[in-house]
Amino acid sequence: MWTRRALAEVEDLLASSLRSPGDPFLTSVATHLLGAGGKRLRPRIALLAATFGDPGRPGVIRAAAAVELAHVASLYHDDVMDEAATRRGVPSVNARWGNRVAILAGDYLVAKSAELAAPLGPAAAEEQARMLTRLVAGQIREAAGVATGRHQHARTRAAVPGPGSTVRCGDRGGRRDVRNGDPERYYMRVIADKTAALFALAARLGAHAAGARPELRDALGEFAEAYGIAFQLCDDVLDLAEPSARAGKPAGADLRQGVPTLPMLRALRGRGRGPARLRRLVARGPITDANRLAAVTRLLRDSPGLAQARAEVERYADRARRALGALPDSPARAALDGMCGELVSRASGPPASEAGPPGHPSGLTKPDS
Amino acid sequence: MWTRRALAEVEDLLASSLRSPGDPFLTSVATHLLGAGGKRLRPRIALLAATFGDPGRPGVIRAAAAVELAHVASLYHDDVMDEAATRRGVPSVNARWGNRVAILAGDYLVAKSAELAAPLGPAAAEEQARMLTRLVAGQIREAAGVATGRHQHARTRAAVPGPGSTVRCGDRGGRRDVRNGDPERYYMRVIADKTAALFALAARLGAHAAGARPELRDALGEFAEAYGIAFQLCDDVLDLAEPSARAGKPAGADLRQGVPTLPMLRALRGRGRGPARLRRLVARGPITDANRLAAVTRLLRDSPGLAQARAEVERYADRARRALGALPDSPARAALDGMCGELVSRASGPPASEAGPPGHPSGLTKPDS
């Protein structure tokens, strides 16, 4: 099948564009995570999108590789920020070579990604730059939101702010104004930017490179945007599942980092003893000790928040599927449709009551796809 | 004069492209260093280069702003890596909002820089991406070289390697192969990449956006490449000067970080008691205590290494001036020529024997121009 062959070509291009002859050090830091695997989900979407134009055009492989490099670059910087020790089953770049090299290597991959995309023309370069801006803005808003959302940690030394209030923010506490609106809307915007933007870029760049008609490109972009939101919601739901349900990704990461995800935001809104207890536990600061983590996880799993978040995965997956309706019927369309189904069944997972407590961070790999 | 008016337009574009309506936090982290000043040396070169075409073209201001954003992005990441507390007389982004926000904000500026450059066309986007790749590769090689050059620190736990030897490298010691050639050639390549590439981008992008003829653009690029090398050599020389000679930048930073600059490499090569003592002092590891820093600085100032490095500043400044010979005579050419003269007189500074010991890091600002 074409997609499989094309994925192999993407792999070759990734390797060759990161090979620096005479500089084995640069080559190994740049290829470290790529060599360790990954599902190549974004290149896959780019290649499937390209079938709605002429997938044989020379820029198609380039577009798919550019998107993967931008993704991997963000993983390099994520791991520095989270002080992660492992990624994809191997030591993280920061763990192996230190933060300095990991930050620079992430920057290097961003530049290489731009090099790959540049020949696709100004529209593609603009699209890529705009999507990367969204991605990073989303991450910055997430970092800021940890200090300003309703679900927050004492580490940030922020009082729960009212609308439009001024709060102390950040690890070292600079002052800033925040229009603290609806936390759920804030969260939805964050995940659309930090996750869905790159999926949308994959679809649009693949279609663009293949010369697909603008209305097909737009439909594919709409699909990928909704799919990306469903993907992140699914990830947030699975953060509360037992480790084995996540193919080895340690659970509870969002809780430990104080990232307020949808299940938590919904659960905190509830009435009764459970939500009240949850609010008390969350207000006490970072959920780092195993007992409190287990208690919070249990409360979340029993709350309607988790079920509601699963329903949202379905809702966005359906929205993604509906966007596919504007495309001609084809194996690629069926494959994209199938990806939505996989996501929904992954999110529903085992019944909540059967899942064990979330594991602590370990050497387990994070299936960042 | 046109350049001054154009610089004001660049300033407006920088501010407007970083303004996120409704998101004061994102706006303030993104504009933090730009608002704190800077000499806008790279936009200035872009604008001067543009006068060799039609400087009224709409992309010219955009090109100048894009280059400055790439520069400021690199400062954000530099400050995280160096754990710098201040920059341009204000708290660094990392000191104010923490490393997470500073890394992301640097990424944001890179993306915004690409957004500004994208409409300039595929050649410009490619040029920008390629130069950013060079910039970061140079920084990575510098980081790697600290562990493999002749002048190195015990912190890296690396033995002085012979050519082609395998060494332990990095804060956490991953194994790697290094073709350890001539350290001075290595250093010259590093500074060409980490510093001159961005100057070359400024000149070439400015000329390109103005539609200057290819041979003029190439001459301007050649000028800026040589100027950039002279600029970095000058910076390395001034690192050994007294703080007041550097407009407040704390001296000795390269020594403390173990970055082997040209004055050191040349001084270490010498014969006699001075160089022998220097080699012993350097071999003892990071030069962090005040006494050893003062001793090393004194030896370097008295060595022929410093004078030789100053001569190299002149040599590259002359090379830059010669490249200008291919351009028609104009006020812009005279201005570029004048910049070379300024650099040479800055590097020659006060007589070495009169300079005091280098200061320790303080709240003083780094004139990163």
From TrEMBL, chains A, B:
Residue spans of biased composition, Basic and acidic residues class: 169-178
Which InterPro entries does this chain map to?
Answer: Isoprenoid_synthase_dom_sf (IPR008949), Polyprenyl_synt (IPR000092), Polyprenyl_synt_CS (IPR033749)
Taxonomic classification, please?
Bacteria, Bacillati, Actinomycetota, Actinomycetes, Streptosporangiales
Gene Ontology biological process terms in this record: isoprenoid biosynthetic process
Task: Report which superkingdom the organism of origin falls in.
Answer: Bacteria
Kindly state which keywords UniProt assigns to this record, in alphabetical order. Answer: Magnesium, Metal-binding, Transferase
Instruction: Give the protein name, as stated in the record.
Output: Polyprenyl synthetase family protein
User: Compositional bias (Low complexity) spans?
Assistant: 345-363
Q: Which GO terms describe its molecular function?
A: metal ion binding; prenyltransferase activity
Disordered, as annotated region: 146-178, 343-369
Q: What cofactor requirement does the entry state?
A: Mg(2+)
- Write down the PANTHER family for this protein, in alphabetical order: ALL TRANS-POLYPRENYL-DIPHOSPHATE SYNTHASE PDSS1, GERANYLGERANYL PYROPHOSPHATE SYNTHASE
Similarity-based family: Belongs to the FPP/GGPP synthase family.
Pfam families attached here? polyprenyl_synt
